[in-house]
Design a protein that fits this description.
231 residues, four-stranded antiparallel sheet, Alpha-Beta Plaits, alpha+beta, two-stranded antiparallel ribbon, elongated, 2 domains, 6 strands, 9 helices, 15% strand
């Protein structure tokens, strides 16, 4: 039984286990930050990407040793599998990007997924110091630089989202909003089906705005079924 287990467990199993666990911890730290901010790709996704990339790197390094020892004409190319991981992970990252009109969300999460795949490959290759340092830089960028950017970034516009029947006259919505001295930046209309329309009105931020009163006035307009606000 012991001989059978020895045949199943590679000589490099301890190294592989340490590297996979290291990839799990480092990827989990980045995924946890994304989870706290309620992004689509969070804790589990980042762990799976990081551990999976680490596994692919371990396969590239140790998975073909037996064949190399048996056959003299087999060449060792440890970069082949990792190169496919780097290019293939882009499809997963693209799935986190959401385009809504002129607004694009998810780019940072897509970049973090791609970077976590790189972390997994680096850990799989045994470059622990580089992996830990990179994780620190990534977390620093995600947590602190986001607050630093807000000091120089203009305040985002507010989005008023309205669900209405086809009979709604848009000028009634515009008049209600402008009556509160609000500047309209953009208006988008999307047809949900034959019975419903989705209208998005982007306005300049106004700290003194009475949202309750504005929503009350808009809700009184004929054919308006639902109204909400987002930043």
């Amino acid at each position: 039984m012991i001989d059978y287990l020895d045949g199943l467990i590679s000589d490099h199993f301890n190294i592989m286990m340490i590297r996979i666990l290291t990839a799990l911890v480092l990827s989990g730290l980045i995924g946890f930050e994304r989870e706290l901010k309620n992004h689509s790709a969070g804790f589990r996704t980042h762990i799976l990407v990081g551990v999976g990339a680490c596994l692919m790197m371990l396969l590239s390094l140790y998975g073909f040793e037996a064949f190399i020892e048996l056959y003299d004409n087999i060449r060792f190319d440890p970069a082949r599998i990792p190169s496919y991981v780097i290019s293939g992970i882009g499809f997963l990252g693209a799935g986190t990007i959401i385009v809504n009109g002129m607004t694009i969300r998810g780019l940072t999460t897509a970049a973090s997924i791609w970077t976590v795949a790189g972390l997994g490959l680096v850990v799989g290759a045994g470059m622990y110091a580089a992996a830990v340092f990179t994780t620190f830089i990534i977390l620093l960028s995600l947590i602190f630089l986001n607050n630093f950017e807000k000091l120089f970034r203009k305040e985002k516009s507010h989005r008023i989202e309205i669900t209405a029947l086809p009979g709604l006259k848009l000028d009634h919505i515009v008049s209600a909003i402008e009556s509160y001295s609000l500047a309209i930046k953009q208006v988008e209309i999307e047809r949900i089906d034959d019975e419903m329309r989705h209208i998005v009105v982007k306005i300049e931020p106004n700290k003194n705005l009475d949202w309750i009163a504005l929503f009350e006035d808009i809700s009184k307009i004929e054919f308006v079924k639902n109204i909400s606000e987002r930043q």
